Structure formats: C-alpha cells, structure tokens
Amino acid sequence: MERDELAVSSPAEPQNSGTGTLGKVLSVLEIVATAERPLRFSDILVLSGQPRGTLHRQLSHLLEEGLLTQGRDLCYEPGLRLLKFAYRAWSKNQFRAVAAPHLRRLHEETGETIHLGVLRGTEIIYVDKVESRQTVRMESQIGNASPVYCTGLGKAALSVLPSARLCRHAR
User: Fold this and answer.
1) In whole angstroms, what is the distance from residue 70 CA to residue 166 CA?
2) Residue 67 belongs to domain with CATH number
3) DSSP state of 94
4) Mean pLDDT, 10 residues at a time, over the chain (171 residues)?
5) For labelling alongside 119, which of 15, 22, 56, 128 has CA 20 to 30 A away?
6) What is the pairing mode between strands 76-78 and 114-120?
7) Long-range contact list for 156-161, CB < 8 A, 24+ apart?
8) DSSP label at 28?
9) pTM of the model
10) Considering the domain boundaries, does residue 84 fall inside one?
C-alpha cells in the first residue's frame, strides 16, 4: 500500500508527541488506536516513519504491557489495558463530575442529547453525554474526537476563544 492510502484509512494523523522515547511510543500507540482497521507491521512502519528495529522494539513493549494485541493475522489492535485506562480516566474526571448536574438539567429542559466536550488542538473530545429519548438523535460516543469545525459543540468552543488562540486553530 502507498503511504497516502494508509493515511486516508487512519481517521487522524498522530499528534506530534515529541522526539523522545515515550513520545515515539505514544505516536505508535495512537496510529494503531485510531486506525479504521487492524494494521500490519509494514503499515505502522510507513505511517510512523520510525526505523524498523525501533518500531519492532516499541511494538513488543506495547504488546507485553497489554496496550496492544496481535491476532493470528499478525495485525495490531488496541489492547484491553487501554480500556482500563480509559474507564478510569472517564470515571474520575473532575470536569465531568462537576458538569453532570448541569448536563442533566439542560437535558430535562430540552429533551435533546447533551454533550460535554473538551477542546484539544483542533478537535473536540467527547467527555460525557446525556442521551435524548427521542427516536431521531445524534449518534456519538464518549472518547471520540471530531474536528472542531464539524460540530455544534466545537463551534461553541471556538466562539469563546480569545482571538490570539483562535488564530492558532485556523492554521
């Protein structure tokens, strides 16, 4: 596969996590976790741009720690340990806890799905939601990210940013 084809299959380019060891490992983890399909070593090699030996070592460590799994087809997928981290991050998030009664009140007043999100770079990360009881409603998942300009929540977040910070998002 060509590099362009692989980039299209991954919903987001990995965040530049830095040049250190941990940053490079997180970049590999993000490539696998955000891919639309399980990836082979050669796919990750192309997407990460890391040397073959370095990538092999990183993937081995991620497998050993349970952060990735590898099936019989030798493709890499997010591991169950990531779910444990995600659950703990979600359940102990103070922002979410403080906002919960306000989300419920807004839901009671509108009857609509109410989202809580955090602006991170050029994306909105959904942190919590209260689902509408109506038949037609917006489909979303906690933990997913959407480009900030594609969502009402993102546009609302952009509307209150200071001009200097807003200009950084426009680039």
Assistant:
1) 41
2) 1.10.10.10
3) H
4) 40 53 93 94 96 96 96 93 89 88 94 91 90 80 88 90 72 54
5) 22
6) unpaired
7) 157/117, 157/119, 157/124, 158/119, 161/119
8) H
9) 0.64
10) no
